[in-house]
Amino acid sequence: MADHRTAAARRPLISGNWKMNFNHFEAIQFVQKLSYLLGKDDLGEVDVSIHPPFTDIRSVQTVIDADKLQFALGAQHCHFDDTGALTGEVAPVFLAKLGVKYVIAGHSERRELFGETDEMVAKKVAAIQRHAMTPIMCVGETLDEREAGQTETKVLGQVHAGLTGRTAEQVASMVIAYEPIWAIGTGRTATSDDAQLVCAAIRAAVAAQFGAASAGALRIQYGGSVKAGTIAELIAQHDVDGALVGGASLDPDEFARIAKLGR
Length: 263
Ligand code: 13P
Description:
The chain has 14 helices and 8 strands. It is of the alpha/beta class.
């Protein structure tokens, strides 16, 4: 079967979501160690992004710039407004100024623990793109939804809602991460067939709404207990263009192995 993806979409994106782990000293050490483990050859074939907590971002940026590292800087979250009386929130423009390239929007932990709605996710996606950064929009079903046969309904509903107001061109430059909630931090990974099925359904839904060109350029990651032992089979799937890695991204050796095997 001919590959319907563009060359840019076929270039894998391996993202490390550190969640609430590592202070800025630990973050610097991690990035320096990772830079020894991943060479130019590796990074010539795969994009690697690192998503530290907000308080680490400036420090990580400084290391990346000073050592001219090929890692992309990421963030885990942001607000959708550019300024305001919003105690504790971080505006997307602040992240753009720090050289952040990828921002996660709608992670299931933000949706479940911090009340992020589909509407808020759509606003975040728009705000991230307004500041020329790339959203990694997360979608995924709970175990109950999966067992009730509602995986596609839930996931495609989130995709549709999160892309509200986007143009075909904007969608083409995005990343969508399929993260089944029951696989996050549980050690349970979707089978590669399951991951492929849902990622293909996402691409087909995007093609139906925004056209084949957008769907072919969009990158779709799988996330949920990804390890060095599972990445190769996942990335070999036709519609899996990368991985959003949580726990395994906290170990530089393991994360480097994932990036190497994810090429
Ligand atoms: P784990 O890899 O720890 O399951 O986390 C996945 C995730 O939520 C990445 O965003």
